[in-house]
């Protein structure tokens, strides 16, 4: 069953059934992580929708303007807001609805269906059939890059995979130390070089070891300094070349780590990085700490890059593979449960 059908059913009085189904689908633990991690975003979104309907009189231009404001305020982004409002306008006219509860249903249905139309790619990691799967992690300092490397390492290890990590950010002693701490805590080996040594040489050693010792995954933390785009392009291209020397299939994934609390700035960063190198997936951290979780919709709409993981807390188990259904349901759930408002 698609996301759209499930949420539509939730809206027509089966919300408890749908909730139970989602708990079963990905286990209750996953449901709870989304439930708690998205609390601020859900509250922000439902309050904006509730406000919209408190002053609702009829479908007129004021209504559409307020609707647009609600979406922008929920960090859904400009382009997505315009497309969404147009789709809602068409659906309202087509179905000829005007009772608040019907209008609300149409709003949610269109949100889910526009999301489905923009579904981009799989959340699964692309595997290397002939050797270690290499994942580069890029992103500016402070977004949660090193933490995400550790957490994804943990996830993969839990799946029974053999994982090795390397601290490609040799410019900050703190970054090397931090990855070492994760490695010790999770019992995952970490390849490091001296502070300020050439990152490419550290990565070379790591690929060599990953190959020789038959690791399934090599996770590469890279430097977050981005003086110029040319600089970044050069650095990453060099790293990829070095990796290809030892691992003929090269790099399988380049994950850009973004901090969700920065809202639309995360989108700007994604565009800049994507111009410097091909980003194959996004890791969106700190969703638990922000009401700006609507940015996932905006990223989906504006960029053709799948969100692969989202960070729903600080624990190793809090980084979850992105599940659009859990996300959408947890975004709109309070609005569904508050049908009478
Ligand atoms: P880096 O500079 O990009 O490598 O960032 P770090 O990995 O050092 O993370 C910066 C801070 O963000 C740390 O205090 C992390 O604990 C925190 N952090 C990372 N991911 C998450 C998340 O999903 N949720 C929360 N609440 N904090 C996070």
Automatic annotation (TrEMBL):
<dbReference type="Pfam" id="PF02881">
    <property type="entry name" value="SRP54_N"/>
</dbReference>
<feature type="binding site">
    <location>
        <begin position="221"/>
        <end position="225"/>
    </location>
    <ligand>
        <name>GTP</name>
    </ligand>
</feature>
<dbReference type="GO" id="GO:0006614">
    <property type="term" value="P:SRP-dependent cotranslational protein targeting to membrane"/>
</dbReference>
<feature type="binding site">
    <location>
        <begin position="285"/>
        <end position="288"/>
    </location>
    <ligand>
        <name>GTP</name>
    </ligand>
</feature>
<keyword id="KW-0547">Nucleotide-binding</keyword>
<feature type="binding site">
    <location>
        <begin position="139"/>
        <end position="146"/>
    </location>
    <ligand>
        <name>GTP</name>
    </ligand>
</feature>
<dbReference type="GO" id="GO:0003924">
    <property type="term" value="F:GTPase activity"/>
</dbReference>
<keyword id="KW-0472">Membrane</keyword>
<dbReference type="Pfam" id="PF00448">
    <property type="entry name" value="SRP54"/>
</dbReference>
<dbReference type="GO" id="GO:0005047">
    <property type="term" value="F:signal recognition particle binding"/>
</dbReference>
<protein>
    <recommendedName>
        <fullName>Signal recognition particle receptor FtsY</fullName>
        <ecNumber>3.6.5.4</ecNumber>
    </recommendedName>
</protein>
<dbReference type="InterPro" id="IPR003593">
    <property type="entry name" value="AAA+_ATPase"/>
</dbReference>
<keyword id="KW-0378">Hydrolase</keyword>
<dbReference type="InterPro" id="IPR004390">
    <property type="entry name" value="SR_rcpt_FtsY"/>
</dbReference>
<comment type="subunit">
    <text>Part of the signal recognition particle protein translocation system, which is composed of SRP and FtsY.</text>
</comment>
<keyword id="KW-0675">Receptor</keyword>
<dbReference type="InterPro" id="IPR036225">
    <property type="entry name" value="SRP/SRP_N"/>
</dbReference>
<comment type="function">
    <text>Involved in targeting and insertion of nascent membrane proteins into the cytoplasmic membrane. Acts as a receptor for the complex formed by the signal recognition particle (SRP) and the ribosome-nascent chain (RNC).</text>
</comment>
<feature type="domain" description="SRP54-type proteins GTP-binding">
    <location>
        <begin position="306"/>
        <end position="319"/>
    </location>
</feature>
<keyword id="KW-0342">GTP-binding</keyword>
<dbReference type="InterPro" id="IPR027417">
    <property type="entry name" value="P-loop_NTPase"/>
</dbReference>
<dbReference type="InterPro" id="IPR042101">
    <property type="entry name" value="SRP54_N_sf"/>
</dbReference>
<keyword id="KW-1003">Cell membrane</keyword>
<dbReference type="InterPro" id="IPR000897">
    <property type="entry name" value="SRP54_GTPase_dom"/>
</dbReference>
<dbReference type="GO" id="GO:0005737">
    <property type="term" value="C:cytoplasm"/>
</dbReference>
<dbReference type="GO" id="GO:0005886">
    <property type="term" value="C:plasma membrane"/>
</dbReference>
<dbReference type="GO" id="GO:0005525">
    <property type="term" value="F:GTP binding"/>
</dbReference>
<dbReference type="InterPro" id="IPR013822">
    <property type="entry name" value="Signal_recog_particl_SRP54_hlx"/>
</dbReference>
<keyword id="KW-0963">Cytoplasm</keyword>
<comment type="similarity">
    <text>Belongs to the GTP-binding SRP family. FtsY subfamily.</text>
</comment>
């Amino acid at each position: 069953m698609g996301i759209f059908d499930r949420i539509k059913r939730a809206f027509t009085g089966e919300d408890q059934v749908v909730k139970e189904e989602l708990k079963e689908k990905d286990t209750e633990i996953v449901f709870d992580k989304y439930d708690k991690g998205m609390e601020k975003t859900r509250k922000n979104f439902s309050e904006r929708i509730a406000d919209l309907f408190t002053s609702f009189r009829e479908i007129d231009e004021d209504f559409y303007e307020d609707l647009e404001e609600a979406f922008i305020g929920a960090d859904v982004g400009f382009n997505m807001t315009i497309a969404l409002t147009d789709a809602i306008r068409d659906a309202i006219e087509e179905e000829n609805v005007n009772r608040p509860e019907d209008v609300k249903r149409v709003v949610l249905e269109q949100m889910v269906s526009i999301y489905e139309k923009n579904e981009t790619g799989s959340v699964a990691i692309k595997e290397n059939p002939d050797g270690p799967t290499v994942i580069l992690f890029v992103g500016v300092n402070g977004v949660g890059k090193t933490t995400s490397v550790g957490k994804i390492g943990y996830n993969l290890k839990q799946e029974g995979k053999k994982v090795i990590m390397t601290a490609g950010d040799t410019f900050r002693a703190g970054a090397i130390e931090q990855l070492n701490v994760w490695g010790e805590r999770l019992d995952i080996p970490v390849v490091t070089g001296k502070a300020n040594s050439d990152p490419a040489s550290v990565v070379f050693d790591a690929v060599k070891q990953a190959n020789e010792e038959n690791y399934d995954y090599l996770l590469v933390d890279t430097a977050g300094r981005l003086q110029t785009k040319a600089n970044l392009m050069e650095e990453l291209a060099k790293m990829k070349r070095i990796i290809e020397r030892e691992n003929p299939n090269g790099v399988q994934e380049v994950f850009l780590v973004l901090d969700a609390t920065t809202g639309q700035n995360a989108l700007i960063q994604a565009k800049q990085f994507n111009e410097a190198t091909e980003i194959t997936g996004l890791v969106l951290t700190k969703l638990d700490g922000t009401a700006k979780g609507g940015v996932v919709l905006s990223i989906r709409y504006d960029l053709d890059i799948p969100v692969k993981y989202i960070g729903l807390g600080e624990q190793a188990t809090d980084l979850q593979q992105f599940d659009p259904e859990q996300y959408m349901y947890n975004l709109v759930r309070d609005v569904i449960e508050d049908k009478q408002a």
